[in-house]
Amino acid sequence: MSKMRSMTGYSYIEDSSKNIQITMRSLNFKYLDVVINTNSNQNILLEEKIKEKIKKLISRGKVEVYIYFKNNTKNIRINKEILEKYIFEIKSSAKEYGLEYDLKLNNLLGLDGVVYKEEIKSEELILPLLDEALKKLLDFKEKAGEDIRLNMLENFNKIKENILKIKKIHPDKKNLKEDNKDDISEEISLIGFYIEKLNKIINSKKEEPKGKIIDFLTQELLRELNTASSKIINKEIANLVLESKILIDRIREQAQNIE
Is the pTM of this model over 0.85? Predict the structure, then answer.
């Protein structure tokens, strides 16, 4: 399978023992944009580490990461040392001033510093799980990318067939417009060059960004086809050029979803 990846993808992973869920979603975007959302306070350094991991593996698209901590109350703690100090001070003050006092836990829990949230060791919990979610996302993107590649290849093969037909017809000077006797051999040669380049990139197994390259090559193909068609009066060639342009537009549209 060639390494063509779609920009759209999805993954979900959950670690029930640690009560963490990670959802990743990637969407079409001209550049790489990573957005991290969580229901827990995370430090900036951890966010940067997450972004760096993603940037090493994904080159283009909007990547949304959702990190959700279930049962977020499990890390709530009572500072017994501070609680005991409050109780001691209340009793001491009541005795000193001859006052009555009513110690209720609910009231004590509202005092400053008694209840706190124990800091979650986010990095140790999140990063290994993120690696799994990221792998699943890449698998999804590659499978979707392969579907696009096969569809793209089908259109590409039709274009190649059309160009071969044009090559067989075009040498006849009668097919050139009277006011423009230039041969289209140069255009045909350049079209062949871009087709070869396009063939290589579509079938390449290298893990490299392909969307922008395909977009560029299809633009150049369209340019040369337009130039050639402006010199030709043969209806058969005109129809082949028109069909090829439609097929190239389809490939360009498909390339918009390729990383």
Answer: no
